[in-house]
Each structure stands twice: as structure tokens, then as C-alpha cells.
Design a protein that fits this description.
about 575 residues; mainly alpha; two-stranded antiparallel sheet; 21 helices; 2 strands; about 70% helix
Length: about 575
């Protein structure tokens, strides 16, 4: 047993695992009591009972995973605050979700994002998007979360890469255990168990992140000392043999970078590339969108993303900044000459060296919470996609009980597939790089089809199918070239140019194969950009939304200016 972890720490971790599975089982019991003829609606969409605080927390929890705690700290240790762009740019994307996408989703009364695409275009669009959504849920959401959580457990146990437990590779064993525990409570409880456990896990996650940040900040001696240390000492990795990166740690606290920055994330690549992956991730991906579809009404569906946007202010300070502070602490020899063995060990290094007994166990539990909440969200969305978009298509008379049974079996299968797929992320330099590269290759065709689908009434279903199929083909080629080292350009700019190509295919295809907008589809298209601001909103006053939109815009613009 790792000497850096006390018996109390391990007791907290074990108690957490037992408690979270138990909470999921209790949620499943309550769900069954509430069903009364609507079993499918309760299992997959929580009976359309979610209010905006739960929606916001659940979206934040589904988005924030162990990847954020571990990989953002890893990226920050190497490059500084620049990766915080992903968090603060999300605020603008969530406004887009609240303003334009959420009302149309609620009014269409669909259970999945592919279902919405069928109602706007045709069945073939739904089938293609279902395949993309299943891939993203199992590989991008679950796979990376399991791999990162297993890496963390390996680190806190002090195991070397390749170490074995009971003759099994420790990393694979941890992946399997975390995946199976998550699959159990997700299968039994459905979406209600997911949002319950997500809300609790988010609170635990934030407590752990705050503890690390405060401990690191106090140890460095405050902001002035942090700035001075970074500016006056070489980067710890600069002395590593074979290093080819020319670090400038004086630039570490700036989020906006130029084209020569070693991070490879200049400001223009963020401006051009992030909307492509952000709109897909927050506005079109089933794992995130499912919380909107389960909203009690349109008012809650709109306020939920805005609350999530507010929460996205904090990850830069709680997940990214600690990695920067760790650089300064190592520069000051605050750990007696010790430093993380690799940049990927940054967060676990701080966990084991900065926190007292008991709190270490709590933060370690938070790391597990981050992985499990992402996996549970992805599992439930996978079950919903398979039940509604695959089985119900060919057997439309399937009852709710049969759909729930299919959903549970899908949860089991999805867990196994995610466990098998997760080691793919060991191929990349950093885990965060791996996940964002995959998203950059998957998202452009989906973003193009949804944007033109809801804002351009002349967009045709034939063009939408062409765009999705050709976009997937181009994404696969780009992935192959990158995986084999044939081409490795800026993946954010790659996402932008793939979007441009997909938009061109969509526009040309719509003029070449024109279609009259179906009567049922008219309510799924905005006639003009001003319409969402002018329409009356059931259950609330329009001024509340305008105030919230303006406030969030001002906050995020101010943050970018402050850390430019």
C-alpha cells in the first residue's frame, strides 16, 4: 500500500465507491415507483422532470471528467494557462445552446439528437448521426475517462508503467473495475441515477479541486511570488535530455498566445477551431443534449445551459492554474528537489505532496467521481440511442418495458466496449491532445448540418446526408494521417477547414438537390437570428434571459482581457 496514503484515505475512497453505487440503486428504486405507465420516459429522460439547477450541474458534471483534473494540469505544467481557452470559450457555446438549440429541441419533443435530425431532414441523417453519437459516447467520453482514472490510480499507488496486479496489467485492471462499478448503477437507475450521482459527484469534485488549488497557492506564497518565480527561473522540463521545446515561463499566465507559442494554440486557431468542436460537443452531442431533452419545460431548458456557463468560469482556476503553480513550486525546490516523473503525473504529484491525511482520500475520490460521472452520462445516452434510434426504428411497437431492457443490455455492452477502447489514448503525447484531436475529426460534418439545418430553410435532406457521409470519410482520412505521423498540423485549424469543406458540400448539395421544407420541419428552423430574442418564452420573462446572456458575455470577455 502506498505510504503516502493513510488508512483513513483508503477508507474514504472505499466508502465513496460503495456510497455512489448505493445511491444509483436507490435512484433506480424511486424511478420504478414513479413510473406508473411511463417506464421508458423515466429511465431515459427522468420523466421530463429536470429543473435548471440540476440540468446545469449535470451538464457540467458530464463535461468535467478526470481528464480535466489530470490532463489540464498536465497541459498547464507544460504550457501554462493557454488550455484554459477550452473552458472559457465554452461559455459562448452554451449561450448558443440556450438561445438557439434548446427551444427547438423542446418544441420538437424528441428523445435524442438524431431523432431531431430525422424530423428536420430524413431517416438516413438520423442513422448516420446515431453511429457518430455512439462512437463519441463510448470512445471519446467513456474511453478517455476510464483511461485517465486508471492512470491516476496507478500514480497514487506508486506503480510503475506496466506494473501488474494478480498477473494483470494494473492500468487495464483499474479501467475494468471503474467501468464495471459505473455500469452497475447506471444500468439499474437510468438517467435519474445519473443526474443524482452527477450532482453529488460534482460537489465532491469541486471540493477536491478547491483543496488542491488553495494548498498549492498557499505553498507558493501568493500571486506575486508565483509571477516572480515563473518569470525568473527556467522551466523544469527544459533540462530534460532530448527536449526540443523552447519554454518561456514568463508567458505562462497569459491565455492568449501568438503563432510561435510552443503549445500550438495561437489565438486565431482557438477563434476559428473552437466553435466547430464546441457547437458539436455542447449543442449536438447526445451525452450533453440529453439533459436538455429531459427538462421540465422550455424555461428550465434555457436556464440550465446558462447555469452551466456560469460554472465554466471556475475550471481555469481549479484545474489549469494548479499545474502552473506546480511549475513554480518545483522551480523553488518546494518539494525537496522532487518533481513529477512526467507531466501527466502533475495532479497526482500535488495530491500526494500537498494535502494532509483524509483530504488526500477525499480528493482521490473526487478524481474517481470525475471519471464515473462522465462514464455514467455516456452510458445512459448510449442506451437511449440504441433503444430509440436503432431498435424502435425496426420494431416501432416495442413497449416501454422492452425498451428499458434493451437499454440495460446496451449499458453492459457499452461498458465492455469502452474498457476495450480506452487504451487508444496512450498513443498521444497528452490525453487532452488525444481527446481534442478525435473531436476535431468527428465534429465538423455534424456542426455543419445542424447549423445550416436550423438557420437555413433551404438546406435539403439529400445535402445533409452527403455532408455527413463525406465529412466522416474526410475525418477518417485525417485521423489515419495523424495517427501514422504522415500529417500533424494544428488540429484546431484542421477542424475549421474541415467545417468549411462540409459547409460548402451542404450548400452546393442543397442547390443541386433542392427540396421544399416539410410542414413539420418549419417549426424546427429559425426564420431569422432575431427571432429567439423576440419570441415569448413559456414560464418566464424574456428580460431574464437577456440579462443572463449579457451578464455571461461580459464576464467571459472580461476574463479573456484580464489574462490576455
Amino acid at each position: 500500500m502506498n505510504q503516502l496514503f493513510s488508512t483513513l484515505d483508503w477508507a474514504i475512497i472505499v466508502a465513496y465507491l460503495i456510497g455512489i453505487v448505493g445511491l444509483g440503486v436507490v435512484a433506480g428504486t424511486m424511478r420504478r415507483r414513479q413510473e406508473q405507465g411511463g417506464e421508458g420516459g423515466h429511465y431515459f429522460l427522468a420523466g421530463h422532470t429536470l429543473t435548471w439547477p440540476i440540468i446545469g450541474l449535470a451538464m457540467f458534471a458530464a463535461n468535467i471528467s478526470t481528464v480535466h483534473l489530470v490532463s489540464l494540469a498536465e497541459a498547464a505544467y507544460k504550457y501554462g494557462l493557454v488550455y484554459g481557452n477550452y473552458e472559457w470559450m465554452a461559455g459562448f457555446t452554451l449561450i448558443v445552446l440556450s438561445l438557439f438549440f434548446a427551444p427547438l429541441y423542446l418544441r420538437s419533443k424528441v428523445a435524442t439528437a438524431p431523432d431531431f435530425l430525422e424530423r428536420r431532414f430524413n431517416r438516413r441523417c438520423r442513422d448516420v448521426l446515431t453511429v457518430i453519437s455512439l462512437f463519441s459516447a463510448i470512445v471519446i467520453h467513456m474511453g478517455v475517462a476510464l483511461y485517465t482514472a486508471a492512470w491516476v490510480l496507478r500514480g497514487i499507488l506508486g506503480l510503475e508503467p506496466g506494473a501488474k496486479i494478480l498477473g494483470v496489467d494494473a492500468l487495464l485492471l483499474f479501467i475494468a473495475v471503474i467501468g464495471l462499478l459505473t455500469g452497475i448503477y447506471t444500468m439499474m437507475g437510468g438517467l435519474l441515477a445519473v443526474v443524482w450521482t452527477e450532482s453529488l459527484q460534482t460537489i465532491l469534485l469541486l471540493i477536491g479541486a478547491v483543496a488542491i488549488t488553495i494548498a498549492a497557492f498557499e505553498k507558493i506564497g501568493g500571486w506575486s511570488e508565483l509571477v516572480h518565480t515563473l518569470a525568473s527561473h527556467p522551466h523544469p522540463l527544459a533540462a530534460v535530455p532530448g527536449n526540443k521545446i523552447n519554454w518561456g515561463t514568463g508567458n505562462f499566465l497569459h491565455i492568449i498566445r501568438d503563432g510561435n507559442d510552443p503549445s500550438g494554440l495561437p489565438w486565431y486557431s482557438i477563434i476559428l477551431g473552437y466553435p466547430v468542436i464546441g457547437i458539436w460537443y455542447f449543442c449536438c452531442d447526445q451525452t450533453i443534449v440529453q439533459r436538455i431533452l429531459a427538462a421540465k419545460d422550455e424555461q428550465n431548458a434555457r436556464f440550465g445551459p446558462l447555469f452551466c456557463a456560469f460554472l465554466k468560469i471556475f475550471p481555469v482556476f481549479l484545474f489549469v492554474l494548479p499545474g502552473v503553480i506546480c511549475v513554480a513550486l518545483v522551480q523553488n525546490h518546494a518539494f525537496g528537489g522532487e518533481d513529477p516523473q512526467t507531466a501527466a503525473d502533475t495532479y497526482t504529484f500535488m495530491l500526494t505532496h500537498l494535502l494532509p491525511a483524509g483530504l488526500k482520500g477525499l480528493v482521490a475520490a473526487a478524481l474517481l467521481a470525475a471519471a464515473m460521472q462522465t462514464c455514467s452520462a455516456a452510458l445512459n445516452s448510449t442506451a437511449t440511442l440504441v433503444a430509440f434510434d436503432l431498435f424502435k426504428r425496426y420494431r416501432p411497437n416495442l413497449g416501454d418495458h422492452q425498451l428499458v431492457k434493451i437499454g440495460k443490455l446496451t449499458t453492459v455492452a457499452g461498458t465492455v466496449l469502452a474498457i476495450v477502447a480506452s487504451p487508444i489514448f496512450g498513443h498521444y503525447t497528452t490525453i487532452f491532445e488525444g481527446i481534442n484531436k478525435l473531436i476535431s475529426y468527428v465534429s465538423p460534418p455534424v456542426t455543419a448540418v445542424f447549423l445550416l439545418g436550423i438557420f437555413w430553410k433551404r438546406a435539403s435532406s439529400s445535402a445533409a446526408v452527403m455532408t455527413l457521409v463525406s465529412g466522416i470519410f474526410l475525418g477518417c482520412i485525417t485521423f489515419y494521417l495523424d495517427w501514422n505521423g504522415i500529417y500533424r498540423g494544428n488540429f484546431m485549424l484542421t477542424a475549421f477547414w474541415l467545417l468549411v469543406v462540409c459547409l460548402a458540400i451542404m450548400v452546393i448539395g442543397s442547390f443541386t438537390f433542392p427540396e421544399t421544407l416539410k410542414a413539420d420541419s418549419k417549426r424546427l428552423v429559425w426564420n431569422n437570428l432575431a427571432e429567439p430574442f423576440q419570441a415569448s418564452i413559456p414560464g418566464g420573462k424574456l428580460t431574464r434571459y437577456r440579462f443572463a446572456y449579457i451578464a455571461i458575455l461580459i464576464i467571459f470577455l472580461s476574463l479573456f482581457l484580464a489574462f490576455r
